[in-house]
Amino acid sequence: MTQPDTELPWNRRFRGWLRRNWLLDTAWRLTVFIVGATLICVGALLLILPGPGWAMIAVGLVVLASEYVWAQRLLHPLRKRLAQAKQKASQPQYRTQVRVVSASLVVLAGVAVGAYVLRYGFTLDGVRGLWPL
User: Fold this and answer.
1) What are the CA-CA distances from residue 113 to residues 9, 85, 107, 133 (Å)?
2) What pLDDT sits at residue 17?
3) CA 106 from chain center: how many Å?
4) Which of 63, 80, 112, 128 is geometrically suited to a Cys-Cys bond with 36, CB 3.0 to 4.6 A?
5) In this model, does residue 94 exceed pLDDT 90?
């Protein structure tokens, strides 16, 4: 049995109002498609450039999944993997391993910076040949 319009949340009432008019419905779906496709394209660019590319692609899929069933189907495996990652991250043994590896990387980076400072001091002499200045 369906709920009366007054008991629905405001966003569903708004979307129902838009669906009654074909022009508004088409404009809404087109806007959602443009925003979602733009987010996915920016995410694809951020896979090459520095930035959160996969997160941006996921957000674009979430936007598209609000209107399109095909995007919901694409998003389903992603949600499944995120649930598995959440379960794995909540295990104490895994958290300990992540902490040990992170601490090791921080110590390794500190040793590398210390060795560089001991060898070259606070100058860029050691990296002059790596990029044109």
Assistant:
1) 55, 33, 10, 21
2) 86
3) 25
4) 63
5) no
CA dist 92 → 58, 80, 87, 89, 131 (Å): 27, 21, 11, 8, 43
Q: Cite the DSSP H helix spans in the chain.
A: 10-19, 22-48, 53-65, 69-89, 92-120
Supply the DSSP symbol for 51: S
Confirm if 89 and 76 have CB atoms less than 8 A apart: no
Q: Which tens digits make up the pLDDT trace of 97-121?
A: 989 999 999 999 999 999 988 988 8
The confidence score (pLDDT) of residue 85 equals: 86
Distance in angstroms (rounded) separating the CA atoms of residues 48 and 23: 38
What's the pLDDT score for residue 133?
Answer: 52
Nearest alpha-carbon partner for 33 in 58, 6, 68, 78: 68
Structure tokens at 29: 């779906």
For residues 62 and 48, give the distance between their C-alpha atoms in angstroms, rounded to a whole number.
22
Rounded Cα–Cα distance for residues 117 and 125 (Å): 11
